[in-house]
Amino acid sequence: MSGNIVTSSTPALKADVLLEALPYIRRFVGRTVVVKYGGNALAGSSDGDALSLFAQDIVLMHAVGMKPVVVHGGGPQISALMTRLGKVTEFRNGLRVTDAETVDIARMVLVGQVNPQIVAAINVHGPLAVGVSGADAGLIVAAPRDADLGFVGDVTSVNPSIVNRLLNEDLIPVIATIGSDASGQAYNINADTVAGAIAEALGAEKLVYLTDIEGLRRVVSDAASLIRQTTPDELDALMADGTIAGGMIPKVESCVKAVRNGVGRAHILDGRIPHVLLLEVFTDDGIGTMVHGGGE
Known about the structure:
Blueprint: H1 3-8, H2 11-28, E1 32-37, H3 47-63, E2 67-72, H4 75-84, E3 91-92, E4 95-96, H5 100-123, E5 129-133, E6 140-144, E7 153-158, H6 161-168, E8 172-176, E9 178-180, E10 186-188, H7 191-202, E11 206-211, E12 229-230, H8 232-240, H9 248-260, E13 265-270, H10 276-282, E14 289-291
Parallel strand pairs: 1-2, 1-11, 2-8, 5-8, 11-13, 12-14
Antiparallel strand pairs: 3-4, 6-7, 9-10, 13-14
Helix pairs in contact: 3-5, 4-5, 7-9, 8-9
């Protein structure tokens, strides 16, 4: 469904593509879809090209009546700025150790750089996107996860009122994952965790993670072992036996928790594939890994 395919196809093929999409458009009209757009989704492509294609997908979803909400990370961008500033990045179980200076850097990158870039890319297509952070209107209340991690937060609660107000105004919220506690202290929160918590709070139909892998594998080194569909119970087992490890843990834990708490489906997709969102949402075959509640 990339631009090149559409422009070079016959009229009949174009019609077939639209007809295949029609039942999905009908099914998801008015439904909320939370899309986590990670910095790693830009791997293997220029930032501008990847972001432009992503923005097109989000705008098309909005145009056909869906309610997309974008939650973004910026891990590679934070690491790059830390390197420029001479700070060493340390991760523990996929989470960045965050001292006072690092949380300021994270806020600078997420709120001041990445968020406006995504908002601007979407707004090329019309006045649609509004950038907010988790600290705005009490959206994300955070608490420290572990003293050894510094200002890394856990989501204590989500107040989705500001997001719902934006959705009711037919706008697209773009959320930077900085939260704060009751005293106003900022915390850097894993964007995968935030996306899952927001999807739960909104009662989203779908939770989609865009990353730099094609999906989950039963055997990490074997591309043929890609898991097309799975359940929370199976993912629990894959985390327990070490198949899923490192930076994938927060993502998979969030998928599991979200689906168990009412989100219809969770998806892990390769954000480097052009128009991967459209391929997953609007085609019969889909792409990547889908997590559902079981019994299907």
